[in-house]
Amino acid sequence: MEQIFYNSYCPVPENQRPLNEFLNFKQSFYFKWLNQKLTNYLFRIILLSIVIFIFSVPIANFYYCYFEYPTKFIFLNCFIIIIFQTLIIIRICLTSFYIKERLNKPFIEYEESSWYDCQTWVKSIKVLKQDRLIYYYNIFPIINRLKKIIVYLILVYNIGFIFNILI
């Protein structure tokens, strides 16, 4: 994606421009997961769950021995998996909301030096349109998918919590 609308007069350093921040986010590991089809995405989430499960077994075994309390052991592992997945989703949400805010604002706040001096640059109309199009076609669908994922994780967490109380 070319930065044709950020002209040479733009005083914002390249690494602080919203479009470059979006491109860096787009190159990230988790963004690629979120843009895949639902089946591929679910496969990756299940694979991540298996990896987290492998690392959570010693932690859960410390609290509940598998041979004495197998149901509590399994529920504790599921709880650890859900917590780690939730932390990953929250991290992606925070990055998405930050980029959304930077793309939608009609101005860019930036720093020229290493200490905080908070300069602002007003975007031209072309730059603002480009940034908002990027938001509506790339970031907005991800935010909607993340909202659904968070609702499902909360639902699974609550069902597991209620089931754990009953057992």
Task: Record keyword descriptors for this entry.
167 residues, mainly alpha, two-stranded antiparallel sheet, 5 helices
List the topology elements.
Layout: H1 18-26, H2 29-34, H3 38-63, H4 70-104, E1 107-110, E2 119-122, H5 125-166
Antiparallel strand pairs: 1-2
Q: Could you list the spans in which at least 5 consecutive residues all have pLDDT below 50?
A: none
- Measured distance between first and last alpha carbons: 54 Å
| SSE order, one letter for each helix or strand | HHHHEEH
SS content category: mainly alpha
How much strand content do the residues show?
A: under 5%
Radius of gyration over C-alpha positions, nearest whole angstrom: 21 Å
Which strands sit side by side, in order, in the main sheet? 1-2
Characterize the biggest β-sheet. Answer: 2 strands, antiparallel
Helix content: over 70%
Shape: elongated
How would you characterize the overall build of this protein?
The protein has helices at about 20-25, 30-35, 40-65, 70-105, 125-165; strands at about 105-110, 120. The chain is mainly α and about 170 residues long. Strands 1-2 form a two-stranded antiparallel sheet. A hairpin with an 8-residue loop joins β1 and β2 (about 120). α1 packs antiparallel against α4 and α4 (about 70-105) packs antiparallel against α5 (about 125-165). It is elongated, with a radius of gyration of 21 Å.
Summary?
The chain has 167 residues and is mainly α.
